[in-house]
Amino acid sequence: MTRIAMLIEYDGKRFHGSQFQLGLRTVQSELESALSTYLRKPTQIILSGRTDQGVHAVGQVGHVDIDEDERALDLWRLNWAINGILKKDLSLRSVQVVPASFHARFEAVQREYVYRLLNRSQRSAVLKDNHYFIPRALNLSSMQEGAASLLGTHDFRGFRSTNADKSSTVCLVRRAEILNKGEGQLEFWIAADHFVYNMVRIIAGTLIEIGLGKKAPESLATALVAKDRNLAGVTAPSWGLTLHSVYYPDKYNLFQAL
Amino acid sequence: MTRIAMLIEYDGKRFHGSQFQLGLRTVQSELESALSTYLRKPTQIILSGRTDQGVHAVGQVGHVDIDEDERALDLWRLNWAINGILKKDLSLRSVQVVPASFHARFEAVQREYVYRLLNRSQRSAVLKDNHYFIPRALNLSSMQEGAASLLGTHDFRGFRSTNADKSSTVCLVRRAEILNKGEGQLEFWIAADHFVYNMVRIIAGTLIEIGLGKKAPESLATALVAKDRNLAGVTAPSWGLTLHSVYYPDKYNLFQAL
Q1: Nearest residue in chain B measured CA to CA from A55
Q2: Closest of A252, A233, A244 to residue A175, by C-alpha
Q3: Are A185 and A127 in contact (CB under 8 A)?
Q4: Between chains, do A125 and B79 touch, taking CB under 8 Å as contact?
Q5: In Å, what is the CA distance from A197 to each residue of A96, A164, A201, A235, B37?
Q6: B219-226 vs B199-211: helix axis angle to the nearest 10?
Q7: N or C: fewer beta carbons within 10 Å in chain B?
């Protein structure tokens, strides 16, 4: 048996999220179907975590166990073949043999997301599928001030959807910044050890309300302390969000050759 | 009568190019249809130039004459309304009143295009629609050397499709450079006073052959002097190409407020 880590990219538009759901098109089911075809046997995969319907990824990570010896396995051919089977909105950027101790979900030490905004007077025909369009002026420095208060360890109980799962709501945020990419394109980058359900989209929604002047920059810190979902902003739409990277311990040397 | 300049953006994927063609979905026909609906009368537009089927634009420019006095015309409402009528893959970024001397095609003094390449081992699910994927290694410095030889005034007779029109083949190239945007994303930028038919895509194809080592960097200069289409490379595919900007004399102050 050989364990393979996969670096996975998808345009979330036509997926019902990443996790398997009976009868729906999901990233997991499409990948499992392609692998089962190539390997000629039913095959299951584990992803680092779920992304919602409509959310994109350029650095999702998963793993799969294959019934072949590492020396008999041609990963180059497997990668090309899987990308030949998959539809155009899903691809394997890379595959790599990993030790059996590797686990895409439990060994992940950090996830990094980017939420993209388009802040200009009229909508875009080419950025529509991965930017949330906001036609009213945003105060960038207020948003940056709000984002800075996310850094460090906080209880994000007030920044999850009510149907959230039972995992810890205390997250260590190592990056939280807003970049101005020009021509109205803003990027909100956030990296943390883990995230609670809908956390990035609720933070993005809160930052947008801060940028619009509906909330004060310090309201984000206040909402964190209060742990009250009603003090945070609305959930920003899914299509602005991209899972950029998942990080693992250095010992795995994961996807270093890219 | 009021003349209006329009800054136009489109995702070329589902258009049969920019110019009107009977019975086909083109940028011109969709825009004319939307304007005719809003203005309640048949309306024609002039574009700065044609883009082929599949080519994108973020800075196409056109003009239209409207039967209303400038003071009676609410351009803000017109812009929002037209973007409400148009499908999502076509939008007006901005509209502006211009003097009757303005002409989107004849007054344009420079056009700027970007051709995007994705040079990595496996295809991308999110960049597929505006990058040409090249899985073999490209020599960036050879391509940059080739691109540099485009600068200045040259006869591009050898860099047009055989069905080309009759306009002058002598073009003044003011920008020709290749940028490495990271993660395998390369951009070839070219600006010139005008372009002959398929010129950017033929140059891009030639630069790719240079990058792959099939042609020497100096072969581009040789092909320019020889004016022989057979010495240039293949025509690179349309979806990598985006019309980025069209420039007009400063006196028009076109779209300065963006």
Answers
A1: B126
A2: A244
A3: yes
A4: no
A5: 29, 6, 9, 11, 45
A6: 140
A7: N
Q: Which two tokens stand for residue A107?
A: 């060994």
Q: What is the CA radius of gyration of chain A?
A: 19
**B171 has which bridge partners?**
B154
ipTM of the complex: 0.92
Q: Coil, strand, or helix at residue B246?
A: strand
Q: Which residues, 6+ apart, have CB-to-CB distance to B196 below 8 Å?
A: B156, B157, B159, B160, B164, B165, B167, B169, B171
A25 shares contact with chain B (CB less than 8 Å): no
Predicted confidence pLDDT, tens digits, chain B (258 residues)? 999 999 999 999 999 999 999 999 999 999 999 999 999 999 999 999 999 999 999 999 999 999 988 888 999 999 999 999 999 999 999 999 999 999 999 999 999 999 999 999 999 999 999 999 999 999 999 999 999 999 999 999 999 986 556 779 999 999 999 999 999 999 999 999 999 999 999 999 999 999 999 999 999 999 999 999 999 999 999 999 999 999 999 999 999 866
SS3 sequence of A89-141? CEEEEEEEEECCCCCCCCCCCEEEEEEEEECCCCCCCCCCCCCEECCCCCCHH
Which stretches does DSSP call E strand in chain A?
2-10, 45-47, 56-66, 90-98, 110-118, 132-133, 152-155, 170-180, 185-192, 241-247
Length of chain A: 258
Nearest to B35 by CA among B94, B101, B86: B86
* Chain A residues lying within 8 Å of B9, measured CB to CB: 124-126
Q: Does residue B30 contact residue B86 with C-beta atoms inside 8 Å?
A: yes
Using a CB-CB distance cutoff of 8 angstroms, which residues of chain B are in contact with residue A89?
125, 128
Q: Which amino acid is at B29?
A: S
Residue A108, token pair as written in the block: 């992940």
Sign (positive/negative) of CA torsion A83, A88, A90, A92? positive
This prediction's pTM: 0.94
Residues A185, B215: Cα–Cα separation, whole Å: 38
Report residue B47 as tokens.
């574009």
Q: Are A15 and A25 in contact (CB under 8 A)?
A: yes
Measured CA to CA, the distance from residue B242 to residue B25 in angstroms comes to 19
CA dihedral A97, A98, A104, A106 (to 10 degrees): 170
Q: Kindly give the interhelix angle for B140-148 and B199-211, rounded to the nearest 10 degrees.
A: 140
